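Let us practice reading a record.
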Amino acid sequence: MPEINDTRERLLKATAAVIDKGGESAVRIRDITKACAITAPSIYHFFGSREGLIDAAQAYRFSRGQNEIGLAFSTALYKCRSKKDLTELAHRFLDLMFAPERRATRNSRLNVLGNAIYRPELSKELAVAQDLSNKIVSEPLRFAQAKGWVRDDFNPEMFAAWLIGAVNSRRLIEMGGNYPLAHEWDVIAKRSICLVLGIPEPAPKKSKPTKKRK
């Protein structure tokens, strides 16, 4: 079983890399099989067709970044010993999720969502992928709820789904490059998330003093 999962993962990574660079039209079975050192029947075994491979790879593109952050958050949360620890952890991860440097990741996710509008099979793949992402974040949040560190009057899985929507929506102020009031958008987003969790919001960042010219 590990070998099978590893083969499927390698196929998804290789196909996602091709889509990242050249779009879906650049996906060629012979190139993918060569890159993964496998034969074509393996692709049809896991995905049924080239279209099935592309849909699965698109779902992988959508969820890879959020799963990476979610797993890191989960691991770190279980090491927390107090609400203070959790609050500091949440603030660090909020900075990471909304960081301007992750704009390309957000753009990739919205690209996948756009493709899914008229493609039912891709929508199904995304639903499965997002359910998994929700569970990655919701389980440690239930642990935090049991500890009394966050509010217990919200559903952790639905919070996880709403959170990724909030993160993706930052693209609305990134369309034309760096938006001059982006920091104010981040303040509102982080405040909203902290209010739902029932933890203090991040302290306002002090602006750097400008140097006086001599």
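A brief commentary: Residues 54-197 form a domain with the Tetracycline Repressor; domain 2 fold (CATH 1.10.357.10).
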